[in-house]
Design a protein that fits this description.
The protein is mainly α and 273 residues long. It has eleven helices and no strands. It has one domain. α1 crosses α5, α5 runs antiparallel to α10 and α6 packs antiparallel against α11. The radius of gyration is 17 Å and the shape is globular. 56% of the residues are buried.
Length: 273
């Protein structure tokens, strides 16, 4: 859980740094899958620093996924939205209201419940159908990104964030289904690469226009609910005996608190480079 929370801090801080860089870069094609925008943004130190934090967060995420259920890791990563809001208050000069601070406290309470109730990770290895399904979902994420790029800024940020979160969710599940990174016959390996790459492209486009917190809220939904269901139903994740109710409550509270931040947090335009 400590690793999962560390990953949330890394991811949440990276989102704001990458948002500043994406908004400061010259516009790309306007597509949801915008490689031109990504290449312009990646030239800035803020985006590179964000990528470094993403890398550190990914390592911590892998460690966490090898020891606790996916639902616990996913909810902990949802706390990245609380981190995003707090860091945005500093870097994007956003004033957090009492409601937002209360939402941060709610997220922490939900994570505490999960930490007390989470059992060990399941022993399920996943079927070939599940691995192929993950690969198909990763491909669908790219298609959604192409379509979402044509939407107005408000729903565009939300849909792209949701699709990016789904891509990151594919990564979470894939980590559990990969025994060796050198097993090139495992579809989960390609699902991880495609899902993670697509998620980065879509999240960069989402952060370039619209609210940082709204885009990240969509990402939180995408990377928590689906992977949690897969972990419990197909991979055997469970809770400590008699504490299933506490785990469910903690999961709902943590995700709801994160979404409450998206509802009330609306960052202003970032400072120029």
């Amino acid at each position: 859980m400590i690793c999962a929370l560390g990953a949330a801090v890394c991811f949440g801080t990276a989102s704001v740094l990458q948002a500043v860089a994406a908004r400061a870069a010259e516009p790309g094609t306007g597509s949801g899958v915008d490689t031109a925008l990504f290449l312009r943004a990646v030239r800035q130190w803020r985006y590179l620093a964000g990528l470094g934090l993403d890398g550190a967060g990914f390592v911590l995420q892998i460690i966490a996924l090898r020891h606790v259920p996916i639902y616990a890791v996913g909810a902990a990563l949802a706390a990245s939205l609380a981190v995003t809001a707090v860091v945005a208050a500093r870097l994007l000069r956003v004033r957090l209201s009492r409601t937002e601070w209360a939402a941060v406290a709610v997220v922490c309470a939900g994570l505490l419940m999960l930490g007390l109730s989470a059992g060990e990770e399941g022993t399920g290895t996943g079927s070939l159908a599940l691995k192929l399904g993950l690969l198909a979902v990763a491909g669908l994420v790219l298609l959604v990104g192409v379509v979402a790029g044509r939407l107005p800024d408000g729903p565009r940020a939300l849909v792209l964030g949701l699709a990016a979160g789904t891509g990151f969710g594919v990564v979470e599940v894939s980590v559990r289904l990969i025994d060796s990174p050198w097993d090139l016959r495992n579809p989960a390996l390609y699902a991880l690469l495609l899902g993670g790459g697509a998620a980065f492209l879509l999240l960069t486009s989402a952060l370039a226009r619209g609210s940082v917190t709204v885009a990240t809220a969509g990402m939180v939904l995408g990377e928590t609910i689906g992977p949690a269901v897969v972990g419990v139903v197909w991979l055997g994740d469970s809770t400590r005996e008699g504490l299933a109710w506490l785990a469910v409550t903690g999961f709902v509270v943590a995700v709801a608190g994160s979404l409450a931040l998206a509802r009330f947090g609306e960052p202003s335009a970032p400072a120029k480079r």
